[in-house]
Specification:
The chain has 226 residues and is mainly beta. The protein contains 3 helices and 25 strands. It has a single domain, classed as 3 Solenoid (UDP N-Acetylglucosamine Acyltransferase, domain 1), CATH 2.160.10.10. The strands form 5 sheets. Strands 1, 2, 4, 5, 7, 8, 10, 12, 17, 20 and 23 form an 11-stranded mixed sheet that branches. It has a 5-stranded mixed sheet with strand order 13-18-21-24-25, with no helix packed on it. Strands 3-6-9-11 form a 4-stranded parallel sheet, with no helix packed on it.
Length: 226
């Protein structure tokens, strides 16, 4: 996957997030991560009161969203129309949950943007990450957002490494990505649009769009249908 393919305009349909303006301000998705909090606070001030209810410390919840009684939330956060936040989910702050998105039982999110229709339905951890439109994480799939040696995260593109300058970068999933159950997405992983990750994978680096990731070094292109 080349640097050009990692641009926000290549990975995402920006009409499918309330945070579109934030992505338009930057070239690459990891550049957005330090500004999620500021973005939420800016958007939140202008959300219509007839549609959104404000709770606690800067948490805005659309009145059509479904929130289980056992959910624990800290702000700032925006939960958009039709989102479903299920039993024992933990939103740790700096989270945007898109329209129709699902955050399932015992999932934990922090400093993350979920585009519309994203599904993290069972036992997922999503930290310092961005999940594109209609992407899906299978049960137990997690993002790892800090390297074991605590050094700054680099993005490994085919045409050269990109220094993020950040200690915490999880995974970037393009639109329509499917991540199999029990997979671990290592720090700085970028997965292109419409790719599939086999269950129980440990993914490191970048996966080209429209690929099938079977294991490290074994990635096949999806067959196109006429």
């Amino acid at each position: 996957m080349r640097q050009e393919e990692m641009k926000n305009t290549e990975l995402f349909d920006l009409t499918q997030t309330i945070a579109a303006r934030l992505f338009q301000m930057y070239t690459y998705p990891w550049e957005v991560l330090p500004y999620i909090k500021k973005c939420i606070l800016s958007i939140g001030k202008h959300l219509p009161e007839e549609e959104y209810e404000k709770l606690g410390e800067n948490i805005w919840i659309h009145k059509s969203a479904t929130i289980a009684r056992t959910v624990l939330m800290t702000g700032p956060a925006i939960i958009c129309a039709g989102a479903d936040i299920r039993h024992s989910a933990f939103l740790r702050g700096n989270t945007i949950i898109g329209e129709g998105a699902v955050v399932g039982n015992s999932c934990e999110l922090k400093n993350a943007i979920l585009f519309n229709k994203v599904q993290t339905p069972h036992y997922n951890y999503v930290g310092d990450s961005i999940l594109g439109y209609k992407s899906h994480m299978g049960a137990g799939a997690v993002t790892s957002n800090v390297k074991s040696d605590k050094t700054l995260v680099k993005i490994h593109a085919l045409d050269g490494d990109i220094e993020t300058g950040l200690k915490k970068v999880g995974a970037i999933l393009g639109d329509g990505v499917e991540v199999g159950c029990g997979s671990v997405l290592n720090p700085g992983t970028v997965i292109g649009k419409n790719s599939n990750i086999y269950p129980l994978s440990s993914v490191r680096g970048c996966v080209a769009p429209s690929s099938i990731y079977k294991k490290q070094g074994e990635v096949a292109a999806k067959e196109t249908r006429e």
